[in-house]
Every structure is written in C-alpha cells, then in structure tokens.
Design brief:
Order of helices and strands of chain B: HHHHHHHHHHH
Oligomer: heterodimer
Strand content of chain A: under 5%
Number of strands of chain A: 0
Distance between the termini of chain B: 30 Å
Number of helices of chain A: 2
Shape of chain B: elongated
Number of domains of chain B: 2
Number of strands of chain B: 0
Number of helices of chain B: 11
Chain lengths: ~70, ~200
C-alpha cells in the first residue's frame, strides 16, 4: 500500500524541477542583461528576469510548505 | 576581478547547483540534499537577484548609460562645449563632477531616497521613450532645485565669499531664487545652439 510520503515524492520532484527551470531561465536572463549597457536591458532584467527568479523562489517555498513535511525515517 | 565578473561567476555556480537539483531531485531525500536544495533554490537565487539589481543600479548611474539612448546625444555633446558659460560643460571638463557619473551627479536628488527617486524618474524616461513617446522639447519633470547645486557649493568658501551669493543666501537655500533661471547661471545644456559653438577636444 502506498504511503502519503511516496505519493508526494513524484509531485515534489516535479515541482522542484519546475522551480529550478524557472530560476535557471531568470538567472540566464540576468547574465544576458549585463552584456549591454542600456536602459532596456535593465528593464528586461527587472521585468522578465526578476519575474522568473521570483516565481521560482515562490514555487520552491510553496512546495516546502505544502509537500515538504518531514518524512519518517526508514 | 571586477565586481561584475565575480557576480557572473556566482551566477554560473548557482545555475550549475540548480541544474543538479533539476537533474536529480531525488538528492533531496538526504539531509545534505535538502540543504543543497534550500541553498540552490532559495538562498543563492535571492542573493543573485539582489546583487544583479544592485549592479544594474550602479551601471544606471554612469554617463555612458544615460547617453545610450539616441535622443540624449545632444546633451552628451553639450558636455564638450568649449565655453565656460555652459554650466554642465564647465563642470564636466574641470572634474567638478566625476566624468563617468556626470548626469547622475547633477540630476539625482540630494535627499533621503534621492537616488531611488532618480531611478523612478529613469523608469519614467523609459516609459516616455518607448511607450508614450517623449514630449518635445525634452524638459525636466520639475524645475531644477538649488539643493542639488548647494550640495557641493553650499559650504564652499569661494561660493560663500561671493557678495552676490552672500546677499541672497537665504533665498538660494530656500529655493525661492533659482541658481539657474534667475539670470545668473542660465546657460545650461542649450542643445538648440550646439551648431554655433566650439567644442573642447581633450588631448
């Protein structure tokens, strides 16, 4: 019989993946924004990059709160 | 190594650590994996985001940044006018303001949160440039405040001992008499007349 922990595990993994991908996209946008010294790159960093980074962090924290209960030791 | 280079390395290391979690989310089963995930998905990206914002704010203070918009080109040229009556040019050429932060030094507000307010105005500039279109002729959103001049000049001996300044020092400090528009120092960027002036060529 499946326990609650084993049911949560795939969902936890997929959410961590999505959070990680959002963060990687945001951080890559941040790196690219440093290639040009122009107000639009600043705006791109703020509007696009920070949104991805923020969403990634929020999704990770949301995952911790909803799925990250302590697992019983084996 | 410049701060920007250090930040880029930090960003790359963070991306690699996040990629480890993305590729192997199972590592979070262990105590060490949980710590790694917390670092890679929360602490490090937060630091990266804040550091990036700080780095962009510093870059946004440079003369190069302000003049990167084509529409500001005449204002950049005006800094090289060979005429000491051109106030910004005289400040720029004689290092009365740091040349690499010339625009920001005079156009920030010397108040609490003044730098922040200056950057909010910067967002307004971007909005005006790309969305609503600039309102020509280009002008300041508010009349220039003497406070910005007096931040540097206010306590200078040569300023205080000048009889014209000392006679109206209270009015200057209270901004009831403008340094710029009251007939004393009224040749500012004067971009409409750049075809009629000589330019300074630094050796």
């Amino acid at each position: 019989m499946e326990t609650g922990v084993s049911v949560r595990r795939p969902q936890l993994g997929s959410r961590l993946r999505v959070a990680g991908i959002l963060l990687i996209i945001g951080l890559i946008i941040e790196i690219l924004s440093f290639l040009w010294d122009h107000p639009l790159t600043f705006m791109a960093f703020l509007v696009i990059g920070c949104t991805f980074i923020g969403l990634g962090i929020v999704l990770f924290l949301w995952t911790l709160v909803t799925l990250g209960k302590a697992e019983p030791s084996a | 190594m410049t701060p920007l280079a250090i930040l880029i390395v930090f960003l790359i290391v963070t991306i690699v650590l996040i990629a480890v979690i993305v590729a192997m989310p199972g590592v979070t089963r262990t105590q060490g994996g949980k710590v790694l995930a917390f670092l890679a998905l929360f602490i490090l990206p937060s630091i990266c985001g804040w550091s990036g914002f700080d780095q962009h704010m510093e870059r946004a203070k440079t003369t190069q940044f302000c003049l990167s918009c084509h529409i500001m080109e005449p204002w950049g040229r005006s800094l090289h006018v060979d005429d000491k009556n051109y106030l910004p040019a005289w400040h720029f050429q004689n290092n009365r303001v740091p040349r690499d932060h010339a625009c920001f030094t005079c156009h920030t507000n010397y108040t609490m949160y003044g730098d922040f307010n200056a950057k909010i105005r910067g967002f307004h500039h971007v909005w005006a440039q790309y969305v609503t279109g600039p309102k020509l002729p280009i002008h300041l959103y508010e009349p220039y405040n003497n406070r910005e001049c007096l931040h540097c000049h206010g306590e200078a001996r040569v300023f205080l001992e000048n009889p014209i300044h000392s006679a109206q020092i209270d009015d200057l400090r209270s901004n009831t008499v403008s340094c710029l528009s009251s007939g004393c120092h009224d040749t500012i960027h004067n971009t409409g007349h750049l075809d009629e002036v000589k330019f300074w060529k630094p050796e």
